[in-house]
């Protein structure tokens, strides 16, 4: 059985978990306190980051590379479209969320409010929190624009781009940092993706000291 070394609220880990679950690949979850830089973990990934996936006799790191590997090795059900242009759009949006959204929103809200406390790294920086709360509105507006023109973020079918976005938003939703009243289009999109069987395991996550909001696991939130 595959093994995934992860942190529950890491959006990068959640993206891999969603891909594994959607493709019905059995795996064992192992929570890793990567910030402690334990020798055993550093042997798995010298970069000292999660996720790390052990599968097919290989040890893999970097969520984008892992998801691309899973798509090529386990193509059904597909999370990448067939055409070159459509695949480009999926990759562009995955990078948007894992780079721009992460830098402007996730790192300034989730990391300040949760990661710092869990790691014993001090108190949240209020300037970062305010910046993240402002930036998420811009990103929700961009998602609204995409969904006004498409059924899913990258086109007419659900793809890895949707999982990348949902991974970040679900982690932020755990700490009530998403205003779902801001955009009906985004709320409806999230309700669709949240209802998928692949999401069930993620909705059971618990982080000590941070109970999820009442609506977190509610499919009709």
How would you characterize the overall build of this protein?
The chain has 221 residues and is an alpha+beta fold. Helix content is 52%, strand content 8%. It contains seven helices and four strands, in the order βαβαββααααα. Strands 2-1-3-4 form a four-stranded mixed sheet, with helices on one face.
Characteristic key phrases:
alpha+beta; globular; four-stranded mixed sheet; single chain; 221 residues; 7 helices
Largest sheet: 4 strands, mixed
Strand arrangement, major sheet: 2-1-3-4
The rough form would be described as globular
Report the average pLDDT across residues.
96
First and last CA, distance: 34 Å
Which consecutive residue ranges, at least 5 long each, have pLDDT under 50? none
Number of strands: 4
Topology of helices and strands:
Elements: E1 2-6, H1 11-22, E2 27-31, H2 39-44, E3 52-55, E4 58-61, H3 63-73, H4 84-119, H5 126-149, H6 160-174, H7 184-194
Parallel strand pairs: 1-2
Antiparallel strand pairs: 1-3, 3-4
Q: Could you provide a short overview of the structure?
A:
With 221 residues, the protein is an alpha+beta fold. The protein is 52% helix and 8% strand.
């Amino acid at each position: 059985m595959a093994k995934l070394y992860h942190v529950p609220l890491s959006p990068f880990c959640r993206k891999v978990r969603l891909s594994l679950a959607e493709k019905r690949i059995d795996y064992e979850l192992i929570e890793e306190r990567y910030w402690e830089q334990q020798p055993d973990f550093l042997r798995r990934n010298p970069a000292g980051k999660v996720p790390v996936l052990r599968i097919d006799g290989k040890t893999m790191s970097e969520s984008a590379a892992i998801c691309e590997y899973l798509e090529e090795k386990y193509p059904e059900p597909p999370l990448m479209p067939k055409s070159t242009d459509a695949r480009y759009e999926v990759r562009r949006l995955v990078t948007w969320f894992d780079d721009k959204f992460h830098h402007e929103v996730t790192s300034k809200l989730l990391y300040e409010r949760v990661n710092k406390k869990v790691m014993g790294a001090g108190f949240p920086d209020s300037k970062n929190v305010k910046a993240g709360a402002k930036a998420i509105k811009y990103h929700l507006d961009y998602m609204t624009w995409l969904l006004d023109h498409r059924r899913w973020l990258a086109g007419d079918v659900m793809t890895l781009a949707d999982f990348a976005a949902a991974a970040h938003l679900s982690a932020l939703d755990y700490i009530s940092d998403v205003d779902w009243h801001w955009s009906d289009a985004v709320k409806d999109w999230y309700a669709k993706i949240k209802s998928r069987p692949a999401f069930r395991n993620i909705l059971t996550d618990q982080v000590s000291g941070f109970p999820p909001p009442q609506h977190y696991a509610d499919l009709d939130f």
